Amino acid sequence: MSEQTLTARTWQGPSAPERLAILRQARAIAIVGASTNPARASYFVSTYLLSSAPYEVYFVNPRATTILGQPAYASLADLPVVPDIVDVFRRDADLPGVAREAVEVGAKALWLQLGSWNEEAAAIAEAGGLDVVMDRCVKIEHARFHGGLHLAGFNTGEITSRKQRVSARR
User: Fold this and answer.
1) Number of neighbours of residue 60 by Cβ within 10 angstroms
2) Is residue 127 pLDDT above 80, yes or no?
3) Where are the alpha helices (DSSP H) in the chain?
4) What are 80-95's pLDDT values in tens digits?
5) For residue 90, what is the DSSP state?
6) What is the CATH number of the domain that holds 115?
7) Whole-number Å distance between alpha carbons of 66 and 70
């Protein structure tokens, strides 16, 4: 565990309506730490955003040339647009640097994925005028706000108020 993980969380994130507003106002999302590996969370989130969300998606990975058939860029500064949301899949130690880069390019929001919590990065981004979301997944939040998320993480297509029961198999 990192030292950041062991310290108490004092930063307060945006409410659900504020997160919805961030997502609704966004047009372009840059995924920093995007991977070509289908087993990685960034790959799964990327496929969702490309197929089920209304965003222009840009990939930032200095070791890749393409991801999911789209160009990959070495840095946020190399993108052809200013991203509204910088969605980050990087180690804790890298987060303050990514926050600085997001501020430098003029992004509107820094979004740290599930398990990512770095108050230094949040302070850098907020001082630069960015909205900050930490320890939340863009895919999960988008699906939740647009009716596509069931407790199990997918849309069952069934509307019911009954609690599902697990039957014992013999």
Assistant:
1) 27
2) yes
3) 3-6, 16-25, 41-52, 95-105, 119-127, 138-145
4) 999 999 999 999 999 9
5) -
6) 3.40.50.720
7) 5
Find the angle CA(82)-CA(88)-CA(93) to the nearest 5 degrees.
120
Q: Looking at the domain assignment, is residue 104 inside a domain? A: yes
**Three-class SS string for 146-162?**
CCCCCCCCCCCCCCCCC
Residue type, 49: L
Q: Of 116, 103, 107, which Cα lies nearest the Cα of 33? A: 116
pLDDT, residue 148, reads 57
56 has which bridge partners? 28
Number of domains the chain is built from: 1
- Torsion-angle region of residue 41: left (phi > 0), alpha (psi -120 to 50) or beta? alpha
Residue 14 DSSP label: P
